[in-house]
Amino acid sequence: MRMGTASASLAMGVSIGLTIVVPMYFEVAHKLTATESGIALIPLAMTTPGSLLSGQAMLYWKHYKRAPVIGLVFALIALALLIWRPDMSLVNAIVLMGVVGTAVGLVYPVTTVAIQNAVPNSQVGIAMGALNFFRSLGSAFIVAVLGAILLAGLGFSVSRSGRAVSVIESVSSAGPNGGLVFRWVFLAAFAFLALSLVFLLLMEERPLRSGAAQHAKEALVE
Fold it and tell me: What pTM does this model have?
């Protein structure tokens, strides 16, 4: 339960954190409007395909951790490419974001069902409550870290008069190389997602109890 909760919390935190900062990446690095950057964000925000694939893997694969492990490896490769070339073409960036979103979706059903499978039936509600709490806590922490890195890189500061420079002003005033700031944001996301993969590998892959297949189907809807 501990390993599964940690893995899910980190993966969700990276997903939400990137969902918040990537629109600004599109605006700074690719000069998109707010509407265009929101549309370009859709592949990252769509974790449903990954959840569907992971749920099917749990129904038919004995070693059900393989699907999210493979997905996270590809997500780390995608983030490594973004770290290497944050100024890559818009199409390539969108495709790589889609890989990350799909990989994170692969983690949710496996960790949820594995945790339900690891505790007695009388404690499933407690386990799910703890999972949801730590996913929210981890998401808040990772969003704060990614946001702090971004704002520091864009020169977010407080003027002598005490007026804080807004994020929009910082984004608007970013120079032609402003997109390179996001290299550090992607590096932090890479580190958190790598930790998620480590905890997933450490999670014990117990045989699923009777009825776990039904839980997997329910996790797809969730």
Answer: 0.83
Ordered by start, the domain boundaries in the chain are 2-205
Residue carrying the six token digits 């905890």: 199
Q: pLDDT tens across 79-97, in order? A: 999 999 888 899 999 999 9
Least confident of 72-86, 130-144, 167-181: 167-181
Architecture in CATH for domain 2-205: Up-down Bundle (1.20)
